[in-house]
Amino acid sequence: MTAHKRATAPSGIVVDASVLAKIVIHEAESDAVTSALAHAARAGVPLLVLPLTRFEVGDVLVKLARRAERGAAGIDIDGLVEHSLALVETRDAAPGVADLARVHGLSYYDASYLALATAGRGRKLWTCDARLGKAAESGGRRVTTEEISGLA
Fold first, then answer.
1. Confidence at residue 52, expressed as pLDDT on a 0 to 100 scale
2. Number of H helices, E strands in the chain
3. Phi, psi of 2 (to 5 degrees)
4. Torsion over CA: 19, 130, 124, 55 (sign)
5. 55 versus 74: which is more confidently predicted?
6. Domain ranges of the chain
């Protein structure tokens, strides 16, 4: 039997809308993401979101409801705060957003999550978005669902 090495907790994890969308629309990774979110909260790791996150997740739900692909009715987006998420002011992510968007080919929204992660010493970015994840990984800022589940 092999022992699993426990990861040390970053000073904060920026959680983007793609992660929270997994919780509310119940996809393949949903259970793992929900479990990791709860684990990080129990471990006392600050989970940071931007004000725009609520609108991005809401937009996904509205689009799905319009196409009647999934039942989005009755989901309380603001209730996601129950997962110990800390709302961070947009101005804390503002410096360098346009440059990050240009350099990495990201939307301004996605670049704002990356900017928030790079603004804090030891912060990581948790995303399920491939392009944003690649950008965060290139700067050593990405954290995966599996790594969060292994936090000490």
1. 86
2. 7, 5
3. -100, 145
4. negative
5. 55
6. 12-149
